[in-house]
Amino acid sequence: MAKKTFFCVDAHTCGNPVRLVAGGGPILKGRNMSERRQNFLKEYDWIRKALMFEPRGHDMMSGSILYPPSHPENDVGVLFIETSGCLPMCGHGTIGTVTIAIEEGLVTPKTPGILRLETPAGFVKINYTQEGDKVTSVRLTNILSYLAAEHITTDCPGLGELTVDVAYGGNFYAIVDPQKNFNGIQDFSAEQLVQYSRILRKQMNAEHTFVHPLDDTIRGLSHILWTGNTISAQATARNAVFYGDKAIDRSPCGTGTSARMAQWYAKGKLKKGEAFIHESYIGSQFTGRIEEETTIEGMKAIIPSVEGWARITGYNNIIVDDDDPYAHGFQV
Ligand code: PYC
Fold first, then answer.
1. Among 13, 167, 268, 275, which one is most buried in terms of CB atoms within 10 A?
2. Distance 281 CA to ligand 1 centre (A)
3. How far is CA 122 from CA 93, 102, 260, 262, 302, in A?
């Protein structure tokens, strides 16, 4: 009978969970985090399922595992685990992971206040601030983000015809702005958004192929970003990001914010340096900015930054015992 113990530090980033596996994670093969992600998916995906799904996790659960960097000038590598799979990049996951790693002394940065991170999607630079032992804010300068497709029309049962854009910010997002048949997320309950998102994602992935032009291991539309009226007068925009099978991100979603800034930039709605205050479904906020203007395969692209905060909620020694019929989690 095999019994494995994982020492986890739990936190939340602006309301969305982050479970950092600080002990018990597997040693992975691969020259970089992208190759290690493939190795994890092939040989160790049961760990993700056990720690993310019920009964040890829940629909919104999301986490990370730290690895030594593959390049000596960097500080650490991060693998993102989630109910939806192993994401190439996760913004709220990064903010939570950095907060935990610094506060708990899991990583010693070469330069205080800066962390050089390797993620499966590429290099991400972190600037963080501290007051005493507490990390008070984390700003990540994300991977290149771009608007991948515009005005895709699809018929969503229950909603009718929708016209959506697809943008990449570390994951591929279908961005559903107000339509002729509805005005935004304020018209729906969270349950309705989840239900429509599932259908829409399946349908769009069946009708179209979304592949990163420089890394074909990053493929498929994984998230749906719905937009709508803001709650706070200070916010630039609000979203409800769907992931996994039942989750609406409680944070404003870092890769979603990056994707949406890339969409706004391509449409001339956001300029380099302007603050983009993105509000989540529950009203928490990230501040985004376009740091650099660039191109990818002839398309307009940006290097965005996203800033937010996280808080540690507890320590968790999680046991996964083979004699438990639900050792590797379940979904209903
Ligand atoms: O913050 O990038 C993000 C994210 C992805 C899925 C949930 N949150």
1. 13
2. 13
3. 15, 21, 19, 17, 14
2 CA from centroid of ligand 1 (Å): 32
Q: How confident is the model at residue 1 (pLDDT cuts 50, 70, 90)?
A: low
Q: How far apart are alpha carbons 47 and 26 in whole angstroms? A: 9
Q: Give Dmax over CA atoms of the chain in angstroms.
A: 59
82-102 pLDDT, tens digit each:
999 999 999 999 999 999 999
- Residues flanking ligand 1, CB < 6 Å: 62, 87, 90-92, 243, 249, 251, 253-256
Residue 208 DSSP symbol: -
Looking at the DSSP bridge assignments, the partners of residue 312 are 11
| 86 counts as catalytic | no
Q: Across 120-206, where does the E strand assignment appear?
A: 122-131, 134-141, 145-156, 160-168, 172-176
Q: How many CA atoms lie within 13 A of 171 on its CB side?
A: 28
Q: Which amino acid is at 278?
A: H
CA dist 291 and 140 (Å) reads: 11
